[in-house]
Automatic annotation (TrEMBL):
It comes from Biomphalaria glabrata. One of its GO terms (biological process) is ammonium homeostasis. One of its GO terms (cellular component) is plasma membrane. This is Ammonium transporter AmtB-like domain-containing protein. It is found in: Membrane. The keyword Iron does not apply. Belongs to the ammonia transporter channel (TC 1.A.11.2) family. The keyword Transmembrane helix applies. It is a multi-pass membrane protein. The gene is 106071499. GO terms for molecular function: ammonium channel activity. Signal peptide: none annotated. Residues 1-309 form the Ammonium transporter AmtB-like domain. Its main location: membrane.
Length: 312
């Protein structure tokens, strides 16, 4: 996933910032490996209360059979962190970003995932309502991390862009009009979305956590297929909406990339249970919502070079 994000982000900025972007994405993975090993897993999945866990620091006392699960969660933590790299492109000090990366992967992301994915998390436990004498339990479900991963990353990106402000020359000082800053490589962005497509399918398949139980094959295949359907519909929807007057009057490769990307993010939460026609609707709606958020951010003079906030 970090490779796909890195390619899209590198292609969306000016040439002089390419190395800076790629280094940040590399270190995101390394920071996640260290911070999540030392603190993150304990806060996320250690025994505790409904808010946070506090056992298995540095994986101490963790059964070896759960190590693979910890590795999988490190990948999620790294993904949540690297989302911000694109949003703060061209205007964030390297040391500041590195500190943020450790904090998000070691503290913020683990606490949020404890709420929704740990057995004693307050969202995971849910709440029981009684309707006409019948007990109805309502609980939070997020199979592939639409909120647990991507909303955390998108919210962090939004806060970061607010604090940093726009890039120099992004908005006219007198009128506030948007000045388009062109990325240097469509090719990198295109390769990046293909890498992300396979990355999303792999992560959503892996969210089942096992492959030998009855019904696993059906769940995994449905999750992968729904991811592909949502990305395809979202990409086409964004493409034609740019061509036929809704968002412009020309074919847009960036429209295809962003539409497919936001659709994959949106489908993660329910990709294991939705029918393919539902995944198509999710992709269709998500592509329009992304564009609405993109326009809103520009109206508020918030600079997000890769639309990391709008796509989450």
């Amino acid at each position: 996933m970090d490779v796909g994000f890195g390619l899209i982000e590198a292609g969306s900025v000016r040439t002089k910032n390419t190395t800076h972007i790629l280094v940040k994405n590399i270190l995101d993975s390394f920071a996640a490996g260290i911070a999540y090993w030392l603190f993150g897993f304990a806060l996320a999945f250690g025994k505790g209360n409904g808010f946070v866990g506090w056992t298995n620091w540095a994986l101490a006392g963790l059964d070896d059979s759960k190590i693979a699960f910890a590795v999988y969660q490190i990948m999620f933590a790294s993904t949540a962190t690297t989302i911000v790299a694109g949003a703060v492109s061209e205007r964030c000090e390297f040391i500041a970003y590195l500190i943020y990366s450790f904090i998000l992967t070691g503290c913020i992301y683990p606490v949020v995932t404890h709420w929704g994915w740990a057995y004693d998390g307050w969202l995971f436990r849910g709440h029981t309502f009684y309707i006409d004498g019948q007990a109805v339990k309502v609980k939070y479900e997020d199979f592939g991390g639409s909120s647990m991963v991507h909303l955390v990353g998108g919210t962090s990106a939004f806060v970061a862009t607010l604090f940093l402000g726009p890039r120099l020359g992004r908005f006219q000082k007198e009128t506030g009009n948007v000045i388009y800053i062109k990325g240097h490589s469509v090719a990198l962005c295109t390769i990046g979305i293909f890498v992300l497509l396979f990355g999303f399918m792999a992560l959503n398949a892996g969210a089942q956590h096992h492959i030998s139980h009855p019904g696993d094959a059906s769940v995994i295949s449905l999750a992968v297929f729904n991811t592909l359907v949502a990305a395809s519909v979202g990409g086409f929807t964004s493409l034609f909406s740019h061509r036929f007057g809704l968002f412009g009057n020309s074919w847009s490769i960036h429209g295809v990339i962003n539409g497919a990307f936001v659709s994959m993010v949106a489908i993660c939460g329910g990709c294991n249970s939705m029918r393919p026609w539902s995944a198509a609707i999710v992709g269709f709606v998500a592509s329009f919502l992304m564009k609405a958020f993109e326009y809103l951010l520009l109206k508020l003079r918030i600079d997000d070079p890769v639309n990391a906030v709008g796509s989450k």
